[in-house]
Amino acid sequence: MDLRHRTFRLLSATLLAxxxxxxxxxxxxxxxxxxxxxxxxxxxxxxxxxxxLLDRYLPHTGRYAHVTYDxxxxxxxxxxxxxxxxxxxxxxxxxxxxxxxxxNGAAFEKAGKTSKFIAVLSASIDGSGNGIxxxxxxxxxxxxxxxxxxxxxxxxxxAHGMLLRAIAAQGWDPDTDVNIITQAPEVAGxxxxxxxxxxxxxxxxxxxxxxxxxxxxxxxxxxxxxxxTLHGSLVxxxxxxxxPEVVVAYLRAAIEANRLLTEDxxxxxxxxxxxxxxxxxxxxxxxxxxxxxTRDLTWKPEYRRAVATAISTLKLLKKxxxxxxxxxxxxxxxxxxxxxxxxxxxxxALANYAKQPLAANDALTGKPIRDFNGVAQVxxxxxxxxxxxxxxxxxxxxxxxxxxxxxxxxxxxxxxHTSGLKLFAKQAWYVRDARGGLAAFLLQSNADAYxxxxxxxxxxxxxxxxxxxxxxxxx
Length: 475
Prior knowledge:
Elements: H1 3-23, E1 27-34, H2 46-50, H3 54-57, E2 68-75, H4 79-87, E3 93-97, H5 98-110, E4 115-124, E5 131-135, E6 150-153, H6 158-169, E7 179-182, H7 185-194, E8 199-202, H8 206-212, E9 216-221, E10 229-236, H9 237-242, H10 244-263, H11 265-276, H12 280-287, H13 301-316, H14 326-329, H15 333-341, H16 346-351, E11 376-380, E12 387-389, H17 392-405, E13 409-415, E14 422-424, E15 429-432, E16 438-441, H18 444-454, E17 457-459, H19 461-466, H20 468-474
Parallel strand pairs: 1-2, 1-3, 6-7, 6-8
Antiparallel strand pairs: 3-10, 4-10, 5-8, 5-9, 11-12, 11-13, 13-14, 15-16, 15-17
Helix pairs in contact: 4-5, 5-13, 10-11, 10-15, 11-12, 17-20
């Protein structure tokens, strides 16, 4: 056989192989339902999409060698419509909180299908992330003042569960001692400003966003309930069985997004603001170090209990009669494999309950900061990194000088002296000691108690800030 014929046969074989591969090529849809404005879900949606992280991990070898991926992103403002689309077969993945997640599992079960809760994205073992706010000029200062009042909340949300637990802790009957109405956050903002409701309970980020925008004042943080809460990722179980490697790829992208948030929370808080309109200082409360929630992708026992509690609470609310079981609904096989392929130790992460740490030096003295319940931070509009201070008095004195230069201040943060909860400085109460030192508190009642125990005086932000320079000078 001459060279020409051999070349022709080789070319023909190559073309036939290519044609066969094309004939068997598969297009795999990867349809993900996100909640962009629920900013603690950023690592499972917004950042993966905006930074094209999924492309790095989708498989292209073995059975996926000739696959074409049809990646679709669909954004929603809550979990319920994501569930509707997943059950209808229009979405493969969804991100949502524990209560909507339980409803997702129940809805799949009712339709004769199955979904799986595959990973946590952000959570709090105490319940921080949900909260209750009141109009800024309200005389209500704690949940104890809400008896007989009208409280709105998105029904069947994780915030609804928090509200019911908080009411039960007061010994009240939710049907007679308070008037609970359903209201979406978009409506609640206007209702708070107009004084049409006495309080509003909501999930991330509205208990912080409304105060930041001057619409409301926070009087209760979900951490006071000591009931774990989480947002995480779910998948259609049939999809996961067909394409387990794609599920792992999605979770590896979430791990990567989480790593980027750890490295530069200010940068990605600004990206979240650009995409969602939720201001970067609010985003940083969740995404930054010592944040309101822990960015934790592992299934800690507390988070498993949160899902189980959500299922049982929804039954009590008669929102579902599902036989859903948290032990089978939660499936950690995919996140464990994602950790393994990312060369991370899942068991070590599972055992780690610490918040994202803050490694910083005092902007005034240059010394390392050690007391994190006393730390304060200032974020200027013209700076890419936040300034850290060892205590609120230092930060407020610096703010006074900064204000004289005309520079714009994005936000100032302090931490609750008792719980370590991160707060906007303008929303906190302070106890000033005899030497001018300041301790911050979310609740006035806690500040009052601390002042009595330490012979200090309770002051609001304006008084604390105005006296900071003089106090430091007197030391």
